[in-house]
Amino acid sequence: MYRHSRLRRARTPLTLLATAAIASALVATSVGSASASKGTTASKSAKPTVVLVHGAFADSSSWNDVIKQLKEDGYPVLAAANPLRSVSGDAAAVKNLLASIDGPVVLVGHSYGGAVISNAARGADNVKALVYADAFLPDTGESVNELASRFEGSVIGDVLRPVPITKPDGAKDFDFYIDQSKFHQAFGADVSANTARMMAVTQRPGTGTALNEPSGEPAWKTIPSWALVGSNDRIIPRELQVFMAERANAHIEEIRSSHAVTVSHPDAVTRIIEKAARTVR
C-alpha cells in the first residue's frame, strides 16, 4: 500500500514507465507461476481418481483403511455417500459425483455398491475401470435380492430386521437392518468382536426398493472390470461372486475373507484397486 500511494503522487513519465515495467514483470512472473502451478497440479493428478461406493449395512467409514493406503500411494480418493434408497436413485447420485471429477476414474463398489456402480458408470465417459469387492454384478433385469437367493450359502434372509417407513411421496417401504446380535458372524466374522459391534451399531439400512429393484444395462459390459472374491462371504456366497465375475469377464482374485473385506483385508482391496488403476491411461 505504501508503494502504491507514492506512485499515485509521482506522475512523471519516468515513473509511469517504471510502473509499466514493474507491472509487465509481475504479469510475466504470474503467468510463469500459473504455468508451473498447472504443471505441478497435472503431475500430482496423473493418477486416476478412485471413487469408493459402500453397500447396504455399512457406510463410507468402512473404506477408512483402504483410503489411507490409496492416499499414501498418491491417489486422489472420494468416498461416495450411497443413499441406499433405490438402485436407480443411488446410481444417479453417484453419477452426479462422477461428473464433477476431472480426469479418469476407477469406480469401486462393495456389496450392494456393486449394483450401484454397474449402473452409475453407464454413459460416464471418465470411468475407465470398475472394481468389485465382495460385490454384486447384476445383469439387466436382475435385483440384488434375486441374485442372493440364486446360489446356496447366503444367510441374508435369516438376519434382516425390517423397519416400516413412509417415503416422501407417501409410499410404504421397509428399511432393512442386519440384526445386531447376528452381525458379527453374518457380515464380518474375521473382524474383531469390538469392531463388529461398532459396525453393527453404525450400519445404514437399505430399503426393500433398493434390494429388489431390477438393474439397468450394466457398465461392466463395456468397461474393464476387476473382482475381489471373498471365499468365506456369508452374504454373497463365493459361487455367486465367481459366477457374476466370470460372466462380466472380470479379472478375478480370491481371498479368504468375510463380507467385510474392506475392513478385514484393506491391503488386498487396495492392491486390486491399484492394479486396475495402473491400466488407466
Q: Structural class of the secondary elements?
A: alpha/beta
- Strands of the largest sheet, in order across it? 2-1-3-4-8-9
The CATH architecture assignment of the largest domain turns out to be 3-Layer(aba) Sandwich
Give the topology string: H per helix, E per strand. Answer: HHEHEHEHEHHEEHHEHEHEHH
Global shape: globular
Number of strands: 9
User: If you compute it from the alpha carbons, what radius of gyration comes out, rounded to the nearest whole angstrom?
Assistant: 25 Å
> Which homologous superfamily in CATH is the superfamily of the largest domain?
Alpha/Beta hydrolase fold, catalytic domain
Main sheet? 6 strands, parallel
Query: Total number of helical segments?
Result: 13
CATH topology of the largest domain: Rossmann fold
Average pLDDT rating: 88
Low-confidence stretches: 1-44
CATH class category name of the largest domain: Alpha Beta
Describe the structure.
- The protein is of the alpha/beta class and 281 residues long.
- The chain folds into 2 domains: 2-43; 47-278, 3-Layer(aba) Sandwich (Rossmann fold), CATH 3.40.50.
- It contains 13 helices and 9 strands.
- It has helices spanning 2-9, 13-44, 64-72, 87-99, 113-120, 144-148, 156-159, 180-187, 193-202, 208-212, 238-247, 261-264, 266-278, and strands at 49-53, 77-80, 105-111, 127-135, 160-166, 172-178, 206-207, 225-230, 251-255.
- The strands form 2 sheets. The chain has a 6-stranded parallel sheet, sandwiched between helices.
- α3 crosses α13 (266-278).
- 42% of the residues are buried.
- This is Alpha/beta hydrolase.
